[in-house]
Design brief:
The complex is a heterodimer of chains A (about 290) and B (about 425).
Chain A (H helix, E strand, L loop, with lengths): L1 H33 L16 H8 L1 H32 L6 H9 L6 H12 L5 H7 L16 H26 L3 H10 L3 H12 L1 H16 L3 H6 L11 H9 L5 H27 L8
Chain B lengths: L1 H17 L7 E7 L4 H16 L2 E7 L3 H14 L5 E5 L5 H5 L7 H6 L2 H4 L2 H7 E2 L2 E2 L1 E3 L1 E4 L2 E5 H7 L7 H13 L3 E3 L5 H25 L4 H4 L2 H12 L13 H9 L3 E6 L4 H6 L8 E4 L8 E4 L1 E4 L6 H14 L2 H11 L2 E2 L11 H9 L6 E3 L1 H4 L2 H16 L5 H12 L4
Parallel strand pairs in B: 1-2, 1-3, 9-10, 12-15
Antiparallel strand pairs in B: 3-13, 4-5, 6-13, 7-12, 7-14, 8-10, 8-11
Helix pairs in contact in B: 2-16, 8-9, 10-12, 10-19, 12-20, 19-20
The chains are: A mainly alpha (about 290), B alpha/beta (about 425).
């Protein structure tokens, strides 16, 4: 009986497993192999060793992309976590119209990055966005043109992405907060601990799981950051807001340089694995709430 | 009579329905990216002419050149190719030919005597190892200067004729409170503006030396330095909203008279036409050249993947013939804003700008093959990154730019 049910479980899982093996691992293996060939527009099988990787590392646009994703990743994750947690903590004060506020804050997340990018692009465009509004109000000194300044443009992507994601973080955090044992709050009140200290030193450590989940979700959207950059700046001005995924896409298709694109994709894969693996390990190590 | 007609209609409809099973049907699926208003009107000319010649046109329009090319190439490599696909005139199909995925059109080339009717650079662009692999369908000029007559009148200036004239004109436009140069700060347009300066100041040979021969010595010479300086100088005449702007939004600034002029390919005429403006009246067109006319010419081609089915191969041959017929060529050009690729058609029905260009394509010295015809996309892209950085980054010096270009040209692509 037991063996039979296990067999049927395995049979039921087989198609999913097969798809995962062929589609994910197969494609991954193939991408890695292609990155060692001299493929241009079409895949070839002429082995060239690490040539694609050496030209990748020497490529200035790749260097800028990597630098950008580091700045973006750190700021975006930190700001989205802080903002999301603060929003959740505020909503958790049993405010009126909680449902409405929750929907309002979560709303940006329902939009695609393309829409988000376009909306922010219009807002930040100095000729008809916020800067123009300032000028129309008579504030002629007002200047907010980060979108068109190469050294600042990456921060505008951070703004847009934080606006987009902090609602989601809020929802995760709110669920975490609601999971905190009410007895703890009673104890906090009895001991006269100020709320900010209670949040920072008691509640936050209790919510490790929520934080790990939020960080993993945010980190994934950092790694695949592509459409926001395309919609908002298209990598510009110049190459100032280029990101690795866009490097891969452009070289894979428009530029017919499959070898270089797969080398970049493989480099991304290794980096993502190196960053995400410890995070996932940390999340799985969470003490289980109930004994199974 | 009416009954008779409707009976004929029903019969025709039945025939059309039955068509897919007919052994004689000449059916061709065509992938292209002509989806905007003027473009789809133009591609309809091809479809109608092909139907009239007895073929069945199956239209697969995919928005965006890169998307359409990717889809078509993937299908070809994957074994279910379309009958024909649109590409830009140039090196985009090199890999397809090398991998033996395309059928040649030698028979059509011989029958229509391409040697006599096509500009030499366009014949060369479709020929690989002595065989013709693509049918060129049009010529797009990429280095026009469009100007608003009203804006120039407001600033009290005449349209410039060469690059030295240009800067005083731009200064006066600026003084008149206008945006001197309408610009769309996206990477490919930054490259196109650079190519304008390269062709206009440097002339045909220098343009070919840069993109075609990757002549590093030339790049390090004084002439190229002057070109790089001129290009960067144009930066002073664009408005702060230019980064990221779409090319047609920039054209609209000229249409509204808010900006004086714009460097753009002849497809910009579509925007002027849509706004009810005509060349020579509300707007003008010219090509700035320091060494006689240097007209940068690109265009579109159709290639024909190898197919197994004999009927479909026949349909490919029919399509290849129809695309280049004089009647098709002129009707297509009228809608598209391009000029016919055939030298022997009557262009008197085209607009004023196109008539100017039709004269230049008979002069071999005036013809500059476009960027895409000279360099593979990978090299073009790498240089484009540098051009874009040089344009946007105030800290990048001219010497730094030249050194990086020279270095990129020596890399393997």
């Amino acid at each position: 009986m037991r063996i039979g049910s296990r067999l049927s479980t395995h049979l039921a899982l087989a198609p999913a497993l097969l798809i995962a093996l062929v589609a994910y691992c197969g494609a991954m293996g193939w991408t890695i192999w292609i990155s060692f060939t001299n493929s241009r527009m079409l895949p070839s099988s002429v082995f060239v060793g690490l040539r694609q990787y050496t030209s990748l590392m020497a490529n200035e646009r790749w260097q800028v992309s990597v630098q950008n994703i580091a700045i973006f990743g750190a700021l975006f994750i930190a700001m989205a976590l802080v903002l999301g947690f603060v929003l959740a903590a505020l909503i958790d004060q049993r405010v009126r119209a909680e449902g409405l506020l929750r929907s309002v804050f979560l709303y940006p997340f329902s939009m695609s990055f393309i829409v988000t990018g376009l909306a922010w692009r219009w807002l930040l465009d100095p000729t008809f966005g916020i800067e123009k509004l300032g000028h129309d109000l008579g504030l002629t000194w007002f200047r907010f043109d980060w979108l068109v300044r190469p050294e600042r443009v990456i921060y505008t992507l951070v703004f847009a992405a934080v606006w987009h994601a902090s609602g989601l973080v809020m929802a995760i955090m709110l669920a975490g907060l609601r999971g905190v044992d009410p007895e703890i709050w009673k104890a906090v009140r009895v001991d006269g601990i100020p709320p900010w200290r209670a949040y920072l030193f008691i509640v936050v450590p209790l919510m490790r799981g929520s934080f790990a989940t939020a960080i993993i979700l945010l980190a994934v959207s950092v790694a695949r950051l592509y459409d926001l950059s395309v919609a908002m700046t298209n990598g510009g001005p110049g190459i100032a807001s280029e990101v690795p995924a866009k490097f891969v896409m452009d070289h894979l298709f428009e530029r017919g340089n499959v070898g270089l694109a797969t080398a970049a994709a493989t480099t991304m894969l290794i980096t993502v694995a190196a960053v995400l693996a410890p995070l996932m390990y940390w999340q799985r190590r969470q003490p289980a709430r109930r004994p199974v | 009579m009416l009954e008779y007609r409707s009976a004929a209609f029903v019969l025709a409809a039945m025939l059309a329905l039955a068509a897919p099973t007919s052994a004689e049907e000449q059916r061709a699926e065509v992938i292209h990216w002509w989806t905007s208003g003027g473009e789809s009107a133009a591609v309809k000319v091809f479809a109608d002419q092909f139907q009239a010649a007895g073929g069945t046109w199956v239209d697969t329009a995919i928005a965006g050149g890169a998307n359409a090319r990717t889809a078509a190439i993937n299908r070809t490599v994957g074994g279910s190719p379309p009958s024909a696909m649109q590409l830009n005139t140039g090196k985009q199909f090199d890999d397809l030919v090398e991998n033996d995925l395309l059928a040649n059109v030698d028979a059509q080339a011989a029958a229509q005597n391409w040697k006599a009717i096509l500009p030499p650079s366009f014949l060369e662009a479709v020929t690989r190892n002595g065989h013709e692999y693509a049918v060129p369908v049009n010529i797009h000029g990429q280095n026009w200067l469009f100007y608003s007559t009203a804006a120039l009148a407001k600033a009290g200036v005449q349209p410039p004729t060469n690059w030295d004239d240009l800067f005083p004109t731009l200064d006066k436009l600026k003084a008149a409170g206008l945006i001197p140069l309408a610009f769309s700060g996206q990477q490919n347009w930054e490259r196109n503006l650079f190519n304008n300066v390269l062709a206009g100041r440097g002339g045909r040979n220098l343009f070919v030396a840069f993109w075609g021969k990757r002549d590093v010595a030339m790049v390090k010479g004084p002439e190229f330095r002057n070109i790089a300086v001129t290009f960067k100088r144009l930066r002073d005449y664009v408005d702060p909203g230019s980064p990221g702007r779409n090319w047609n939004d920039a054209t609209n600034l000229v249409i509204q008279g808010k900006a004086g002029m714009q460097f753009m390919g002849d497809w910009a005429k579509g925007e002027f036409t849509a706004a009810g403006q005509t060349p020579g009246k509300e707007y003008g067109c010219t090509v700035l050249s320091d060494h006689g006319i240097a007209y940068v010419m690109g265009g579109d081609v159709f290639v024909f993947p190898q197919l197994k089915d004999a009927n479909q191969r026949k349909a490919q041959q029919l399509l290849a013939r129809v695309l280049l017929e004089p009647d098709t060529q002129i009707k297509f050009a009228q809608k598209k804003g391009s000029i016919p690729v055939r030298l022997d058609v009557d262009t008197s029905t085209l607009d004023a700008c196109a008539r100017k260009a039709s004269g230049w394509i008979h002069d071999a010295n005036a013809q500059v093959p476009a960027n895409e015809m000279l360099s593979p996309p990978a090299l073009t892209g790498a240089i484009q990154d540098l051009i874009s950085q040089y344009w946007n980054d105030p800290n990048m010096t001219t010497d730094g730019f030249i050194a990086k270009v020279a270095n990129t040209m020596t890399q393997q692509f």
